[in-house]
Design brief:
Number of helices of chain B: 14
Largest sheet of chain B: 8 strands, antiparallel
Strand content of chain A: 15-25%
Distance between the termini of chain B: 26 Å
Structural class of chain B: alpha+beta
Number of strands of chain A: 7
Radius of gyration of chain A: 17 Å
Largest sheet of chain A: 7 strands, parallel
Strand content of chain B: 25-35%
Oligomer: heterodimer
Number of domains of chain B: 2
CATH architecture of the largest domain in chain B: 3-Layer(aba) Sandwich
CATH topology of the largest domain in chain B: Vanillyl-alcohol Oxidase, Chain A, domain 3
CATH class of chain A: Alpha Beta
Number of strands of chain B: 21
CATH architecture of chain A: 3-Layer(aba) Sandwich
Chain lengths: 244, 432
């Protein structure tokens, strides 16, 4: 199996690479911007799992480059994970500076929409493949402290849902991953509730298992399905006064 | 954020940041103020605690492996557990391992940890070929026995006070199986266990569990566990997720009666004598790693480990006195461990010396520290010392007497600007 990870420098991406290398002996291509870090991860994953790992430079927000990036791949992937994500330390930064807000949208949504179309077209033609989009439970309902990030993820969710609908009869599977809190560099400055917060490795195992079972939507950890059901069920009249 | 280490005492308010590249670390190091590296938080006391720390856990890439010689180059945040799960199936195991696999390579070097094979293999530093160290100005130097050997000797066992260890090249040992041929002997008192240690000295691994609540002619009642790597058995290892202690035990659970009961039960359920039975390597080396958060059984207030070593000539007399004193006080510990150590190495602050080491876990309570001060005096009188990695309370005077090389270490820190840059609560308490 050939696995392509877009936004491969995230902690979840590294853990997902480990899960697919360990269970599946997948050949892995890591794509991201920081090459120094990627090259270390290539060595690391090669030694740990004895699989073929390589890396290449890729910028999700450089939309123009997407088609040529994909065309340049010698072996086309069977599974693609989109794990690029951006969230500023506080939403206020994005409220005050539209460039921050646009960056959130570009990394979390527009980049995905541009890149995954190229891949979807190839998968559709080949009649097989899996696209795994790492989104967030934050996309399920906008909250005052995080709605700009949340809306980018909401757009991503709708996008993945539609793409799944379009490709399901063409042998191509699309999976939406909705993680809750995870201990990663993105959430480093946040005070996260310990019991609800997962490690990247746990999330990666969940993702791998769900991939095997061809799940459409994965909440990880599992309890987020129920937490979000409650949060989505709160009437807007009440919700607007709450501070979650 | 709140920060503490394995003993959960003290808990402090600290600022911490992770690093994944040397550049990210450098930005933290050259910033004004002082800091200390924090790995897996498994040292017991305050040696990794500071108002500002850098977390090495994400700096955990394995960079190179030489399958001919068993040499691994890795970043300091890699845990021993990761090394075992990657390399044991290929027939390689750590040359030196402490009683937990949940520590980082950087922490193992900074504490110069030792294990059941100290009497034959020495400390962790003996399997370290070289490492890179980031100094106060952000510059990186390679340290080995040949190059920057002064820094090498100060950093191995140097409690992170000479800089941040970045990457290390360590030497693994070849093994044929993931099993140990274990010998177990019950010993009725200190004399018997000393005799047993001598008798099994040729086996690479030996350690004893010791009952600290017995006194009189039963003082030092213990169970020796010794062993060697087996030739047969598979190389597969299952390092499964541990069962966790879900909450803090209330303080009253642990008292001299419950510990006495546990100790009796433990002693009498061990076989009186077994030779060379085949046991998996994981529970042999890491019996406690199968229980997550076991530090919670000591309650909210936390605990400390008191680990001392006495020179061999004074060990019998000294330990007898100390054990009797502990039994009289009734401060029993579930986990008291006795070990015969080999000769000391030349590192400035490495703990082991040729003689017997005793370690006991003790719940933090009001009367504990004055009592330990009393024990300190006995340890110093007999020419021994305490382990910095476990320590949270020893005085400057006890440290200086125990570690005669403290002065050269402090001098190095002074001249290289490490004293202002790399500090911990411990280094300030010990004024080093």
């Amino acid at each position: 199996m050939n696995l392509l990870i877009l936004g491969a420098n995230s902690d979840v991406a590294y853990a997902v690479a480990g899960a697919f290398a360990g269970h599946e002996k997948a050949s892995i291509l890591l794509a991201s911007r920081n090459m120094e870090l990627l090259e270390k991860k290539v060595q690391d994953l090669t030694i740990r799992y004895g699989v073929e790992v390589s890396c290449c430079r890729f910028d999700v927000t450089d939309f123009e480059s997407h088609a040529s990036f994909y065309a340049s791949l010698a072996t086309k992937p069977d599974v693609v994970v989109y794990s690029a994500g951006y969230m500023p330390a506080t939403q206020e930064e994005a409220q005050k500076n539209y460039k921050e807000a646009l960056k959130i949208l570009a990394v979390n949504f527009s980049g995905a929409a541009a890149m995954l179309e190229v891949i979807a077209a190839d998968f559709e033609r080949r009649g097989h493949g899996t696209i795994i989009g790492i989104s967030s439970v934050a996309g399920e309902r906008g909250r005052q402290s995080n709605y700009i990030y949340g809306s980018s993820k909401a757009a991503f969710n709708a996008y993945l849902s539609g793409m799944r609908n379009r490709l399901c009869r063409r042998g191509v599977h699309v999976m939406t991953v909705l993680p809750g809190f995870i201990h990663t560099k993105m959430t480093e400055g946040l005070d996260l509730p310990g019991l609800l917060t997962a490690k990247p490795e746990e999330v990666a195992e969940d993702i791998y298992r769900a991939f095997r079972k061809k799940k459409d939507i994965l909440y990880t950890k599992w309890f987020w399905r129920w937490i979000m059901a409650v949060i989505k069920g709160i009437p807007e009249m009440v919700f607007k006064r709450m501070s979650l | 954020m709140k920060l503490t280490s394995w003993g959960r005492y003290p808990r402090i308010e600290a600022e911490g940041s992770h690093f994944e590249t040397t550049e990210q670390l450098r930005r933290q190091v050259v910033r004004d103020g002082n800091l200390i590296a924090y790995g897996m938080g498994r040292s017991y006391g305050d040696s990794a605690l500071n108002e500002r720390v850098v977390f090495s856990r994400r700096f955990n890439k394995i960079l190179h492996f030489d399958p001919e010689n068993g040499l691994v180059a890795c970043e300091c945040g890699v845990s021993l557990q990761e090394l075992i799960s990657v390399f044991l199936p290929r027939g390689w195991f750590l040359s030196v391992t402490p009683g937990t696999r949940l520590i980082s390579v950087g922490g193992a070097i900074a504490s110069d940890v030792h294990g059941k094979n100290h009497h034959v293999a020495g400390c962790f530093s003996s399997c370290v070929d070289s490492f890179e160290l980031m100094l106060p100005g952000g510059e990186i130097v390679l340290c080995s026995r040949e190059e920057n050997s002064r820094l090498f000797r100060a950093t191995c066992g140097g409690m992170g006070l000479t800089g941040v260890i970045l990457t290390a090249v360590i030497r693994l040992q070849k093994v044929k199986s993931a099993y140990i041929r274990e010998t177990v002997k019950r010993c009725r008192n200190l004399e018997e266990i000393f005799h047993c240690f001598e008798q099994y000295q040729k086996l690479p691994y030996s350690v004893a569990w010791i009952d600290c609540l017995e006194s009189g002619d039963q003082v030092g009642r213990s169970v020796l566990m010794a062993g060697d790597h087996a030739d047969t058995g598979s190389l597969d290892i299952d390092l499964h997720q541990p069962v966790s202690v879900p909450f803090d035990f209330p303080g009253f659970c642990l008292n001299r009666y419950s510990v006495k009961l546990f100790n009796r039960f433990y002693y009498h359920t061990r076989p009186a004598s077994v030779e060379k039975r085949l046991v998996p390597l994981d529970p042999f080396f890491y019996p406690l790693d199968s229980i997550g958060h076991w530090n919670r059984i000591y309650g909210k207030g936390g605990f400390t480990q008191y680990q001392l070593v006495l020179p061999k000539s004074a060990s019998y007399e000294g330990l007898k006195l100390i054990l009797n004193r502990i039994a009289k006080q009734g401060l029993g510990s579930f986990l008291a461990v006795l070990k015969l150590c080999g000769p000391e190495n030349g590192n400035d602050l490495s703990f082991p010396m040729e003689g017997y080491s005793l370690a006991l876990d003790l719940k933090i309570e009001k009367k504990l520290f004055p009592f330990l001060d009393e024990l300190d005096r006995m340890v110093i009188d007999y020419g021994g010392r305490l382990y910095l990695t476990k320590d949270v309370r020893m005085s400057k005077a006890v440290f200086r007497k125990g570690y005669p090389q403290w002065e050269t270490f402090a001098e190095l820190r002074e001249t290289m600007g490490m004293k202002e840059k790399f500090t911990s609560l411990q280094s300030r308490r010990l004024e080093v």
